[in-house]
Prior knowledge:
The chain is α+β, with helices and mostly antiparallel strands. It is built from 21 helices and 16 strands. 49% of the residues lie in helices and 13% in strands.
Amino acid sequence: xxxxxxxxxxxxxxxxxxxxxxxxxxxxxxxxxxxxxxxxxxxxxxxxxxxxxxxxxxxxxxxxxxxxxxxxxxxxxxxxxxxxxxxxxxxxxxxxxxxxxxxxxxxxxxxxxxxxxxxxxxxxxxxxxxxxxxxxxxxxxxxxxxxxxxxxxxxxxxxxxxxxxxxxxxxxxxxxxxxxxxxxxxxxxxxxxxxxxxxxxxxxxxxxxxxxxxxxxxxxxxxxxxxxxxxxxxxxxxxxxxxxxxxxxxxxxxxxxxxxxxxxxxxxxxxxxxxxxxxxxxxxxxxxxxxxxxxxxxxxxxxxxxxxxxxxxxxxxxxxxxxxxxxxxxxxxxxxxxxxxxxxxxxxxxxxxxxxxxxxxxxxxxxxxxxxxxxxxxxxxxxxxxxxxxxxxxxxxxxxxxxxxxxxxxxxxxxxxxxxxxxxxxxxxxxxxxxxxxxxxxxxxxxxxxxxxxxxxxxxxxxxxxxxxxxxxxxxxxxxxxxxxxxxxxxxxxxxxxxxxxxxxxxxxxxxxxxxxxxxxxxxxxxxxxxxxxxxxxxxxxxxxxxxxxxxxxxxxxxxxxxxxxxxxxxxxxxxxxxxxxxxxxxxxxxxxxxxxxxxxxxxxxxxxx
Length: 610
Ligand SMILES: [Zn+2]
Ligand SMILES: [Zn+2]
């Protein structure tokens, strides 16, 4: 499962924009139907289970969707059928007869990857119907030698079937024109642009939008009672129908291109469906649609110089992040500071720990704690002093501070508007650094309070307003931390301003009590987590090492004991018991919910009125 974190939405809310944040699971399709057969339940039951797991993960990470919806709804059927009917009326649909593998044993047509067999090129015995994993050849399932149904091993037979094709070729010119304009205006990410361009450069071909399945949106066409809409035609319509599940006024968002901007966030593998197939469906209806404005697509996040692998249990996944005991905000911080916006990035435990201990605790946490504690002290007894009596001294330190914070804020706002989330976060951290510097430059301590109370009051009042600003600046990234700061300040959230006035925490206001925002992570955790999430191979190596060490120790002990004339092997038994305990811990992790296929369908969309 990929972690999909979008913070532009919280940013929009903290700027006071009218924004809607929609996400959901697209639940229809072959993979669901087949998995349900495997798990001996109905597709509905399967989807209910995974939907719940997804929701829990997102709740834990505090992904603040306005609605986290699903595709099997009445609204989905209505809207998808309406789009289908209009495409048909406008001449963009066409029926074609195709030949597909059919399994007579479980009575169903088979999607390409549910047929396995021998590769006609290299002879590999477990080639999939769409591609051979050994030699990489792209395959047609009917080309496989000795093909078999992945589910029951029966030999599929070729069978003719009728399907509806979307004439993407007839919509090509229009979608090209639109994407050229939108990608420029909305400043799509580079990989989003290049993937779209390479798809368009190949020329668009008609694409089947129906499937021989039961689990899907019904097709409003005679003779198609036993077929459903193809999941990728259907899935993007989910954004619209999930909005319709949220509000009856969904058309004000989706049929309002003048006033609404559509921002979409996804991994790069899903680009063409959002930049070509869905826009083609929209254009083909002839209706006025809100179409993609900004596309934010990421590259891959790697795990410790390798790849995350759900099947091999390598890497830390959404559902197991909380097992580390580290708060979601720290995860959010680390993952966003490593968001693969322009190239692949690495997840590394030592970096994760360093980010918490140095960037968060020493920089951000220290600044907030130092100032709040100081105001809590008998010097002020938690009452905000009046900083206005201070006239700027020759060093101009306070005026300079205000100026630099405002420059930093301008950069921050600029990056966030452009959805450069990673850069925005590093700007936020810089603002926190400036706060620490303020306290250092002015040597804030009891001596200053005694010797120059007027200046001390000015520094304190400025610093309190500064952390009020930080609560707003960090809110998109670390909502719980932001709330904690507001509690300590006993203040309402600040709407992110264009210019920081530095006077939002008023004299005479009583603040709350200081509390640590972050806590130290011990360096030995690195090794512990690496083993915990290292997957079978690493685990195996570790267990082998342990076993060897234990054996060596046992040998030594045996020799010693032999010398001493004793043959008790108690110590060695104790060691192997430790390994068994760790083994069962690993089993727990592996039985941790495998959120698979449906996760691939989870994308995010955020709409805002301009
Ligand atoms: Zn079968
Ligand atoms: Zn092959």
